[in-house]
Write a structure and sequence with these properties.
Blueprint: E1 13-16, E2 22-23, E3 26-27, H1 29-41, E4 46-48, H2 56-65, E5 74-80, H3 90-101, E6 106-114, H4 116-124, H5 127-137, E7 140-147, H6 151-160, E8 166-170, H7 183-192, E9 196-200, H8 216-222, H9 228-237, E10 242-247, H10 252-263, H11 270-284, H12 306-319, H13 325-332, H14 347-351, H15 358-369
Parallel strand pairs: 1-4, 1-10, 4-5, 5-6, 6-7, 7-8, 8-9, 9-10
Antiparallel strand pairs: 2-3
Helix pairs in contact: 1-2, 1-10, 6-7, 9-10, 12-13, 12-15
């Protein structure tokens, strides 16, 4: 299916509403409004949110929809399959998003976080047909999906659903050749199917932008006038088929820096790509917990998502920072046990095929985030 997306009308930098600034837990609208205004004044147009981002759809309504002409920006939001129940149907989820956003149409409507299993759920409840109907009605302008899975699963979904005009993929230089994330292969699958690409997590939740990271000195040595974040953004900006790159900016300084990067964005040179390769090597040299996410430990009596918390702890070890990780921890434990809830029953350690000292790791996670 040929895409009708006018990519030349969309700013190359997208504003992700997942990590908005807060004061004592409440949205800092004074700063958010300034960020949105700065974004629009400098050619940004694409705002990304989701039904599942707590309060973010309402925040987009208050900071953008109510304050700027509707034809001056695009709204992207997402339909979560995990929230579909007999009572909360896809129709109700969609209507809730429309009401929160205060708009009569959505520019980009995504099935949220698909893989092979969640796509089967989407098909079983008629989500693909529903999006096609909304598009025919003009209630949404473009339909697609965000994706978290393997290249094979992505190929399967795009083969079965050529009506998808775009896909949102996690791509960054750390994940590019990762055997787990396989960002390069995901990108190649999307290009094979000739669908437009939105990049998410180009900075890996801020971890590829941290001045505390062991790669900071390397990048500053190569170019003292460029931010660490700019290297990661330039890496994804050079990829064909990417029409916008989302950044979950959390303050005015991050917004200004990203705008500066995109105001005169240049292809990475061969020498600069070598610097990025060195940065990846540095990050790989940082000690990690060798968890394979086999989830043999999933039946925790305290309902702790053990492998997810170990992966979060690995992010802390690799990037030497807790920047933006606290929010991820709160999200991961919003419907499950916290690390401090561990009863030390040792059931997880008894079954772990990697012989990881899980109780010790959970204690460290608790010290960082509880």
């Amino acid at each position: 299916m040929a895409s009708t997306i006018q990519t030349d009308k969309i700013g190359k930098l997208g504003f992700g509403y997942m990590r908005l600034p807060r004061i004592k837990g409440e949205f800092d609208y004074e700063q958010i409004n300034k960020m949105a205004d700065m974004f629009l004044e400098n050619g940004g147009t694409y705002f990304d949110t989701a039904y599942g981002y707590e309060g973010a759809e309402v925040a987009l309504r208050e900071s953008v929809v109510k304050r700027h002409p509707r034809d001056s920006f695009q709204i992207a939001t997402k339909l979560p399959m995990w929230s579909v129940t007999q009572e909360m149907t896809i129709e109700k989820l969609h209507k809730t998003s429309m009401d929160r956003l205060g708009t009569d149409y959505i520019d980009f409507y995504l099935l949220h976080s698909l893989n092979s299993n969640s796509n089967k759920m989407a098909e079983s409840v008629g989500a693909w047909d529903y999006l096609a109907k909304l598009k025919a009605q003009g209630t949404i302008r473009h339909m697609g999906f965000s994706f978290h899975g393997s290249p094979e699963e992505l190929d399967e979904i795009l083969t079965k659903h050529p009506e998808a005009e775009f896909t949102q993929l996690q791509i960054n230089y750390w994940d590019w050749d990762s055997s787990k994330a396989q960002a390069r292969r995901l990108y190649e699958v999307a290009r094979k199917h000739d669908v437009q690409i939105i990049v998410m997590e180009p900075l890996l939740g801020g971890k590829l932008a941290s001045t505390d990271s062991p790669i900071a000195e390397l990048f500053h040595g190569a170019d003292p006038n460029s931010s660490i974040a700019s290297w990661a953004l330039r890496f994804v900006a050079q990829l064909d088929g990417v029409f916008t790159t989302l950044s979950g900016m959390s303050n005015l300084e991050q917004m200004a820096d990203n705008i500066k990067t995109y105001s005169d964005i240049k292809q990475l040179s061969k020498d600069e790509l070598v610097v990025i390769e060195k940065a990846v090597a540095v990050l790989k040299g940082v000690p990690r917990v060798d968890c394979t996410s086999c989830d043999y430990c999933k039946d925790c009596p305290a309902n702790i998502k053990i492998s997810s918390l170990i992966n979060l702890y690995n992010d802390h070890l690799v990037h030497n920072t807790t920047t933006n990780l606290g929010g991820t921890y709160n999200w991961l434990t919003s419907d499950s046990g916290k690390a401090c809830d561990c009863t030390k029953c040792e059931r997880c350690e008894d079954i772990c095929p990697q012989d990881i000292e899980i109780l010790d790791i959970l204690a460290k996670v608790s010290k960082l985030f509880d």
